[in-house]
Amino acid sequence: MTDDPRKPKAFRLEPDPASNEKSSGPKAKVEQPKAGARKARTKPKGRQPRALAAPEIHFEEPSDDALLPAIARDHTIAKRFRWGGILASGALGLAGLWAGLAATQLIEDLFARSPALGWIGTGLLALILIAAFAIILRELFGLWRLKRLGTTQADATRAISADDAKAAQATLTDLHSIYDARSDMRWGLAQLKEHSKAIMDPADRIKLAERDLMRPLDEEANRIIARAARRVSVVTAFAPAALDIALVGAQNLRMMRELATLYGGRPGTLGTMRLAKMVAGHLAVTGGLALSDGVISAVIGKGLLGRLSARFGEGAVNGILTARIGLAALELCRPLPFLTQPRPGLSDFMREVVSFGGDGEQGTQDKSDKPD
Asked: How far apart are the first and last CA of the chain?
């Protein structure tokens, strides 16, 4: 080592090319780097080396079918084809062809035997075709009338909720077209026509229509439901166990058809079946067939016959179920919602259902004491 100390000396650090390129931006790309890295750093502005380039990712919205699993897509495609409808259509078409060929062969055989028999057979065949055509038209008109009641109720509900004057006018027009041909509704229609001229509010017009038209129909509907409930109670109590289900079903269908006819539906066989399906759906949604233990015990405990025989208690329960079905059918067939008139409840029919028991005379006496 030497004793001569090193003198301080100023020197300058060369900047790092990589850090200079990041910090200085486009200006650093113009400076000349080292010779070994010249080719890599003197590329045109805006381009990056391939190793540093970020891959471009394109997102595409998948179609609705791609979101479904394979089983769901197959089920959707199979549902579109409606194989059950195709099967039914093919079977009906084949049955129609067979019936036509059989009828033609029969007419030819009759003509071969005797011209008189042939003409008689032709007349009978024409009569059968005319009757079948009339029945088909009646069923179609019954379905259309039942649908019109639902449309009128929907228009009335929209007029009340949205204060829609157009829906209120459509509701009144439908009511006039439904009840114009009925003699028992002429007074109500005249009152409605007279009072509606002075009322402009849509909700008030619907309330006026309910007051003038629905009150007598609701009273008759309550009598129909009460009569059906009593009939079902008696049928269940006295009919054999093998027949009570069929008899109760027939009474319920009859009650629903009477209610629809009362409110202007007049459904045929298909219309009644459709109404029964609608009632079943309505009860399934609202839970209308659920009976609590308190109601069952109260019904079974009513009257001396209910205490002595479980069969009469079962009849009372079936009567209450019939009353609930009738109330659901009333709500579906009534062309206007309940606004000014009281909505009937199950408690209104309890006395009617259990009147065949020990409290029957008392219930009749109470009803007769009420003023008209």
From this structure: 136
Pairwise CA distance, residues 233 & 227, whole Å: 10
Residues 101-119: pLDDT tens digits?
Answer: 999 999 999 999 999 999 9
d(Cα 199, Cα 327) in Å, to the nearest integer? 31
Q: Dihedral (C-alpha) 17, 20, 24, 28: value to the nearest 10 degrees? A: -10
pLDDT by residue (tens digit) across 274-321? 999 998 888 887 765 555 544 555 555 544 444 446 667 777 778 888
Angstrom distances, CA of residue 191 to CA of 95, 268, 269, 337: 53, 31, 35, 20
Residue 345's nearest CA partner among 363, 327, 333, 330 is: 327
> Which amino acid would we find at residue 17?
P
| pTM of structure | 0.65
Q: In this structure, what DSSP letter does residue 158 have?
A: H
String of DSSP letters for 105-119: HHHHHHHHH-HHHHH
- With helix as H, strand as E and coil as C, how does 165-224 read? HHHHHHHHHHHHHHHCCCHHHHHHHHHHHHHHCCCCCHHHHHHHHHHHHHHHHHHHHHHH
The Cα–Cα gap between 3 and 319 comes to 126
**Interatomic CA distance for residues 53 and 51, integer angstroms:** 6
- Whether 147 and 141 have beta carbons less than 8 Å apart is answered as no
Residue 206, classified by CB atoms within 10 Å of its CB into exposed (0-12), middle (13-18) or buried (19+), is buried
